[in-house]
């Protein structure tokens, strides 16, 4: 299984719009360091047999897929419905045209219901081979249950994201937790034994809706993954600072990062 980091930034990206010269607000991030330039958070999983799974469709999706050479997949998981995770949904039309059919969208009933309200046209019946719009088939999931996605076993779990909930995922040796500030005990149990965990770390200081560095380190001590990769990082999280100060076993993601792990188990 190859994990590709399409984007690892917060809702505004890094840099955010504005700045004294109009070329962005960088905060504590060094503009000269390419790995400080972050698009909105999303990942892509590619199994050895070619099965592809996208996680979230943020506003930077088209550029992200082009940058990674990704043009065909049949599955997308939605973690929640905030704009920085769903507003690029229409870009999936190009993928529909490549694969010649609808893409299966996984998420809680609440998340899929809101997507069906906001993007009603995407879930309407279509006539192959014509894709004048993106086309999704909704597949509701329940937290904590094993889900068959492309023939592989995934477990999707509950996360507290401040005023809303979000969905994390466990896929064999890998887990992904974007947009989380608290983890219920069943979700902690789901994460135990994971090898590589990519997790929200928006800033160094406490935040009401996102994990911060000390909280991530507390979770690391509790869950004990071998590798922690920070994502959904804001402008406080400078690449050079993190390289010098993060403890062993903890590292920062960057847009374009990829790594490989064993394929997850096949679904029963």
UniProtKB/TrEMBL annotation:
Q: Which residues form the Metallo-beta-lactamase domain?
A: 39-232
Record's signal peptide:
none
Q: Which GO terms describe its molecular function?
A: phosphoribosyl 1,2-cyclic phosphate phosphodiesterase activity
Pfam families tied to this protein? Lactamase_B_2
Q: Known InterPro entries for this protein? A: Metallo-B-lactamas, RibonucZ/Hydroxyglut_hydro
The yes or no answer to whether the keyword Hydrolase is present is yes
What domain of life does the UniProt record list for this protein's source?
Bacteria
Annotated EC: 3.1.4.55
Which keywords, in A-to-Z order, does the entry hold? Answer: Hydrolase
For the protein in the UniProt heading, the enzyme class is hydrolase
Q: What is this protein called?
A: Phosphoribosyl 1,2-cyclic phosphate phosphodiesterase
Provenance organism: Acetobacter lovaniensis
The organism that produces this protein has a lineage beginning with: Bacteria, Pseudomonadati, Pseudomonadota, Alphaproteobacteria, Acetobacterales
């Amino acid at each position: 299984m190859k994990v590709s980091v399409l984007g690892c930034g917060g809702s505004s990206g890094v840099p955010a719009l504005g700045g004294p010269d109009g070329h962005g607000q960088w905060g504590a991030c060094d503009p000269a360091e390419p790995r400080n330039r972050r698009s909105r958070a999303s990942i892509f999983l590619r199994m050895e047999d070619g099965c592809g799974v996208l996680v979230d469709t943020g506003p930077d999706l088209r550029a992200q897929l082009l940058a990674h050479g990704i043009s065909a997949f049949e599955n997308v998981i939605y973690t929640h419905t905030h704009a920085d995770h769903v507003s690029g949904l229409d870009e999936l039309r190009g993928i529909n045209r490549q694969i010649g059919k609808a893409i299966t969208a996984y998420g809680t009933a609440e998340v899929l219901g809101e997507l069906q309200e906001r993007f009603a046209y995407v879930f309407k019946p279509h006539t192959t081979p014509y894709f004048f719009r993106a086309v999704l088939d909704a597949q509701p999931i329940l937290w904590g249950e094993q889900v068959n996605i492309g023939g592989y076993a995934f477990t999707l779990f509950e996360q507290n994201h401040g005023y809303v909930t979000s969905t994390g995922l466990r896929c064999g040796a890998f887990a992904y937790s974007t947009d989380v500030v608290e983890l219920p005990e069943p979700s902690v149990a789901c994460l135990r034994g994971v090898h590589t965990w990519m997790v929200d770390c928006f800033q160094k200081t406490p935040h009401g809706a996102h994990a911060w560095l000390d909280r991530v380190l507390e979770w690391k001590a509790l869950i004990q993954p071998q590798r922690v990769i920070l994502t959904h990082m804001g402008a406080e999280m400078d690449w050079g600072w993190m390289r010098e100060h993060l403890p062993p076993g903890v590292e920062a993601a960057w847009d374009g990062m990829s790594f490989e792990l064993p394929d997850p188990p096949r679904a029963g």
